[in-house]
Amino acid sequence: MAKGPGLYSDIGKRARDLLNKDYQSDQKFTLTTCSATGVAITTSGTKKGELFVADLNTQLKNRNVTTDLKIDTKSNLFTTFTVDQPLPGLKTIVSFVVPDQRSGKLELQYLHDYAGVTASVGLNANPVANISGVFGNNMASVGADVSFDTKTGNFTKCNAGFGFSHADLTGSLTLNDKGDTLSASYYHTVNLLTNTAVGAEVTHKFSSNENTIAMGTQHALDPLTTVKARINNNGKTNALIQHEWRPRSILTLSGEYDPKAVDKNPKFGLALALKP
Prior knowledge:
Blueprint: H1 13-20, E1 27-34, E2 40-48, E3 51-62, E4 65-72, E5 77-84, E6 90-98, E7 105-112, E8 115-122, E9 128-136, E10 140-149, E11 154-166, E12 169-176, E13 181-191, E14 196-205, E15 210-222, E16 225-232, E17 237-246, E18 249-257, E19 267-274
Parallel strand pairs: 1-19
Antiparallel strand pairs: 1-2, 2-3, 3-4, 4-5, 5-6, 6-7, 7-8, 8-9, 9-10, 10-11, 11-12, 12-13, 13-14, 14-15, 15-16, 16-17, 17-18, 18-19
């Protein structure tokens, strides 16, 4: 277990991953190849209904500098430069999209045994600035996440959160949407050997007085096969099975049933990730 509290985005992450990660209703194919010099090329394609989107990503590593170049079907070039540890605990990230001249962003991440801070600013005339910080240790932490639009002079985001972790149980309490949304989540490891876990998230929206409840679980049938399921208070149910049929190559089959949409067919998703 890491010593520090991580970043603000790590608060409640284990429960979010249990309830959301790998569920999909599209068909996706990903192929990754790596050269002896450390260059990784990833090709992916996704079919969303009648729409097909694809992208090509190249990653190059040279000492502590990582360069990511990705081009999509709309001829957008996404470029990211990451410098890891220019100073102890610091990571620098510069990103931009060609031809969008307003897309540039500079981000700094700093990790300490008792703190984690992220600051970013847009590289344009009227940038949006964001800063988040979390303080504590690997057992308990508290933090905030704030964004400020210099063009309008308004705070566009103001969130706060508390997280704790003890043995096989983690939990979080967050206040988002400028105080309008209160969420509580937990994640419990039932059996470490079979990767069996349960989790839940309860969200209350003050402006509409609405509550949302989601519960999920996962279990490893064997070292290479995992099943997951989730259900919310509206009865929408999702399930998936994920199998590593060869080292680093994973097949995922998922489905969704919504009892409030009986006039529509259940949704099915397929994801195949190959990494020879």
